[in-house]
UniProtKB/TrEMBL annotation:
Statement: the UniProt record of this protein carries the keyword Acetylation: no
Domain of life: Eukaryota
Record's keyword terms, sorted: ATP-binding, Membrane, Nucleotide-binding, Transmembrane, Transmembrane helix
Protein name (database record): ABC transporter A family
Family named by the database record: Belongs to the ABC transporter superfamily. ABCA family. CPR flippase (TC 3.A.1.211) subfamily.
Bilayer topology: Multi-pass membrane protein
GO cellular component, one term: membrane
Transmembrane feature ranges: 51-75, 378-397, 418-445, 457-479, 486-507, 519-541, 562-583
Gene3D superfamilies membership: P-loop containing nucleotide triphosphate hydrolases
GO biological process: lipid transport
Length: 971
């Protein structure tokens, strides 16, 4: 290493190779620095997407703020506050109150809707009433007049039962016994306390007013038989008696006060009573006629010394729907009737009056509605999880495009990748959290303002860590970005709906098993929902009661589930990280070789080769191979455990793809044996599908071999790929580039992975850009997405050579290049092969002859021949190519001439006087050919002629056809 930390050049001897390999090994800090710089540039180029992501909570909070403002304007209307009266008007406008403080407000200036908001220091005393059904809904029970329900003349039915039937009959007979006490008409409550008043008016959520005393509701007096005289007197004076109550609401019209007979009906058991009550409850069974009852009594085991009674009340008219506040039930009078019946049975003539009911005093109130808390955890759950599909798509994108595998092949290990990506995701999440909380607080969302910020920050921070870990875990199961994105958003919205319409009902149902909720919360989205639910409840109640929301002291409450949700998220965070890292190593859902399932226990190596792989290996016998291929195999076999100074040694490398869709297993590579020394460029030629790219993919760790292995600088591809990556450069068949990064930025990143730093890095990048003609005109600083196909290929070649790797794989590097760029690229490869081993695949015979020291023609998964270009053409050509052009009518004469020179000649081309023949070399004397052509010029019009050796392309076509047809010609 240089004094300033820059890498220095070393000599290529054995010791020099070791030093050079060591220099290529980058440390954790170097790798982390490289990927962090790359990510910084990548995210800077994606600033618009990041800005939109961070503005999402701003826009949503702004929308909430607008809706909250509109709601506040609505709630400031007169209907939602105590009624007022102005006592000082403007002189110019008698309808304009001069000053707001000249308004006087109170119950007497309010209508029924406004009254609930007024201060009440002394609530009214209301008669205790029974809840009775309307005449048209009263039960037409057995024993009552037939058709009374249709005419609205049915008496009020009260079922009863008890352990002692005779006693139950006696007690029920005293339920509606007239009171002999005289009426006290000066006091309405006292007068009504001795009677049994009831109403069909719905009950309200407060006793500050009684709907029964509005003129649209009737007041019924229940009695056993005829209307008592004192009740008749009360009914006659009804309007005057109710005047004090009327005046409170400004009601002047008398309501309908009437007597109504009550009938007690014996039932043999409680189940029968419950069935009858259910039939009438809010319509009950829609297939049956509505039959409503006033109440029902179960006297149970009541005796002279024991009073036990069960009261079944009618809540049909109670406003108890899920979206309405709870109502006060009219059961006080029902209990009083049972107690008074027992007292009168024990002591005839005794009385137990219930004088009145009243509410507690209350201050003035205003209806306030925090829309954000009213939305509940559903909205916040969606917003907090909105990052998940974005982060998931980012991870899967690099896997789908094989960019992560490309980084691995240039020396990047998993740990720095995970740490840098995790850190970036967490920073983005924290920024998202801060913006959400700051903006939400700024627009006065009670959800944030009322709950303690310390509790919120801890909970959100733990959840965001959990979400990032969950993203890494779930990314292992996806290989396509679009699929991951769609599934991510489905998870976000689906989990929110499940939380709102499933988990919430469990949380609010006191009968649901708490352990069931606990197990549900182990699903990450439900743990988040539980925490947000607690925040929303605390904020809503705090806003309603002018108090704070969630406080630290509230966490000790056993009913508060925030602590449990927080602990679950913490535990899951650690578990998700471990599982994510594990599955990332062993699940091959993207690209790259997966590790054994028990690698964490120290198990090394690949699984045993499949039978198909062994059979494929056995198919290749020495007697079926050409001598040059057999010689290469023998040379590799002699190396045994060493490399013999070779950089690349393939030992019987096999690849068998498993059967699919009923097809047999595909044998892609059969017993590949090859040794490539330093300074040699070995070319692999072959038709499409021959197995060239598969062979390279196994050597670079892109695919796992089915059998055999390869040694790279003495390192086994099955166990030491991490070390191999640091000394390797790869130009894949398809360009694996980040569209938003420039060519220079690509080279800087991969150069850092190869341990280049400082001036040495800058010099290497400049040299690489110049060598592949990406320097002039600032092309190297343009984004790769703007490059043409040829420019991308040149950049890929430059990436494979950056940092002077010891071994380089180039898969069709000149594809798509123009002639000038191709010739320049050839010179780059020629210069690069001097002190490294290169394996190159190509379809260009010219490129193979120019660049490759040795060639191997690869057909049907195995080598058919190996040697330098001249050896192959001389060894497998075996003929001359004779071309001649004459007049068309002389073509037959030319054929006779050629066959006289070589009886085994074969015409391979004939068009408009131009013919081409193949002449076996053992039949042809070149001197005789020249002499015969000169003699023939006197009688034939020979316009042009020539004779040449077989080209490499001819050899390639010949070998390929023979291999595909199974015709092996051994030399």
């Amino acid at each position: 290493m240089g004094r300033n930390g820059d890498r220095v050049e070393v000599l290529p001897g054995p010791a020099g190779r070791e030093d050079r390999a060591a220099a290529l090994q980058s440390t954790f800090g170097v790798q982390a620095n490289a990927i962090m710089r790359k990510n910084f540039v990548f995210q800077k180029r994606s600033w618009a997407n990041n800005l939109c992501l961070l503005l999402t909570p701003v826009l949503l909070c702004a929308l909430l703020g607008i809706l909250q403002a509109l709601i506040n304007i609505l709630l400031d209307g007169d209907s939602f506050k105590c009624g007022c009266k102005c006592i000082e008007f403007s002189a110019s406008d008698p309808t304009d109150c001069l000053r707001r403080d000249k308004n006087i407000c109170g119950l007497e200036y309010s209508d029924v809707d406004q009254a609930v908001y007024c201060p009440i220091t002394s609530p009214a005393e209301w008669p205790a009433l029974l809840q009775v059904p309307l005449p048209e809904y009263r039960a037409e029970a057995p024993g009552l007049p037939v058709g009374c329900q249709a005419s609205g003349s049915c008496p009020l039915a009260v079922p009863f039962t008890g352990g002692n039937p005779s006693l139950a009959y006696d007690l029920s007979a005293h339920l509606f016994q007239p009171s002999p006490a005289p009426l006290v008409l000066s006091d309405v409550n006292t007068a009504l306390a001795s009677q049994y008043p009831g109403t069909a008016a719905p009950s309200s959520g407060t006793l500050q007013y009684e709907l029964a005393f509005q003129n649209r509701y009737a007041l019924y007096f229940l009695q056993n038989d005829t209307c008592p005289a004192n009740v008749t007197q009360l009914l006659a004076l009804g309007q005057a008696a109710a005047a004090p109550i009327y005046s409170s609401f400004g009601i002047s019209n008398p309501q309908n006060w009437t007597c109504s007979p009550a009938v007690t009906l014996w039932n043999s058991n409680v189940a029968s009573i419950n069935e009858q009550l259910f039939v009438g409850y809010r319509g009950g069974n829609p297939e049956r006629t509505i039959s409503e009852y006033t109440a029902a009594y179960d006297w149970r085991n009541t005796s002279t010394s024991n009073f036990v009674v069960g009261v079944h009340y009618n809540s049909t008219y109670q406003n108890n729907t899920s979206d309405a506040p709870p109502s006060i039930m009219r059961i006080a009078r029902q209990i009083n009737l049972a107690a008074q019946a027992f007292l009168r049975w024990q002591r005839p003539g005794a009385s137990l009056p219930l004088l009145f009911v009243k509410d507690m005093p209350k201050p003035g109130t205003r209806l306030r509605l925090d829309f954000s808390s009213l939305l509940g955890p559903l909205f916040y759950m969606w917003v907090w999880q909105m990052l998940y599909p974005v982060l998931l798509a980012s991870l899967v994108y690099e896997k789908e495009k094989n960019l992560r595998t490309m980084m691995r092949m240039h020396g990047l290990t998993d740990l720095p990748y995970w740490i840098v990506m995790y850190t970036w995701f967490l920073v983005l999440s924290v920024a998202y959290m801060i913006i959400f909380m700051v903006v939400g607080s700024a627009i006065q969302l009670k959800f944030f303002l009322l709950n303690d910020y310390g509790i919120q920050i801890i909970f959100y921070f733990v959840f965001l860590n959990n979400q990032v870990a969950w993203t890494f875990l779930t990314a292992t199961i996806f290989s396509k970005t679009k699929t991951a994105t769609v599934c991510g958003y489905l998870y976000v919205f689906g989990s929110g709906l499940l939380g709102q319409f499933l988990l919430r009902f469990f949380l609010e149902d006191p009968t649901f098993n708490g352990s069931g909720i606990f197990f549900l919360e182990w699903i990450p989205c439900f743990a988040l929902y539980r925490g947000l639910y607690e925040f929303a409840q605390a904020a809503f109640i705090g806003n309603y009661q002018d108090e704070s929301g969630m406080k630290w002291s509230d966490l000790s409450d056993s009913q508060n589930g925030l602590v449990t949700a927080l602990l679950i998220l913490l535990i899951e965070w650690a578990v998700f990280l471990l599982l994510g890292f594990y599955f990332d190593q062993v699940v091959s859902s993207g690209s790259g070789v997966k590790k054994p399932w028990l690698f964490c226990l120290g198990k090394r190596g690949t699984p045993a080769p499949k039978e198909a792989g062994r059979r494929a290996s056995a198919e290749v016998g020495v007697d079926m191979e050409r001598p040059d291929v057999a010689a290469e195999r023998a040379a590799v076999a002699q190396l045994k455990d060493g490399t013999g100074g070779n950089v690349i040694v393939c030992k019987n490398l096999n690849k068998v793809f498993p059967s699919r869709d009923g097809n047999p297993p595909k044998v892609a590579v059969k017993s590949l044996a090859l040794a490539v020394p330093r300074g040699e460029c070995f070319g692999m030629l072959g038709p499409n599908g021959a197995g060239k790219t598969t062979s390279i993919n196994m050597m670079v760790g892109f695919l796992q071999p089915s059998a055999g292995t390869a040694l790279i600088e003495g390192l086994d591809i099955r166990t030491d790929m991490t070390k191999i990556y640091s000394v390797m450069g790869v130009c894949p068949q398809h360009d694996l580039l980040w569209e938003s990064l420039s060519g220079r930025e690509h080279l800087l990143f991969y150069g850092r992975l190869k341990n280049l730093r400082g001036p040495a890095l800058q010099a290497a990048v400049e040299r690489s850009l110049r060598s592949v003609n990406l320097y002039a005109g600032g092309v190297g600083d343009k984004r790769a997405g703007q490059y043409s196909g040829g420019m991308k290929r040149r950049l890929s070649v430059a990436i494979s050579l950056i940092g002077d790797p010891l071994v380089v794989y180039m898969d069709e590097p000149s594809t798509g290049l123009d002639p000038a760029s191709r010739n320049n690229l050839w010179q780059v490869v020629k210069d690069a092969k001097k002190d490294r081993a290169i394996i190159l695949t190509t379809h260009s015979m010219e490129e193979a002859e120019v660049l490759c020291d040795r060639l191997g023609i690869f057909v049907d998964g195995q080598f058919q021949c190996i040697g330098n270009p001249k050896e192959l053409t001389s060894r497998y050509g075996g003929s001359y190519v004779f071309s001649v052009t004459t007049a068309p009518q002389e073509m037959a004469a030319v054929g006779e001439l050629v066959h006289s020179l070589s009886p085994g000649a074969r015409r391979v081309y004939a068009v408009s006087g131009t013919q081409r023949f193949e002449l076996p070399t053992d039949e042809v004397d070149l001197a005789k050919v020249f002499a015969a052509v000169e003699r023939a010029k006197g009688r034939l019009q020979i316009q042009a002629w020539g004779i040449a050796n077989t080209t490499l392309e001819d050899v390639f076509v010949k070998i390929s056809k023979e291999a595909q047809l199974g015709e092996r010609t051994l030399s």
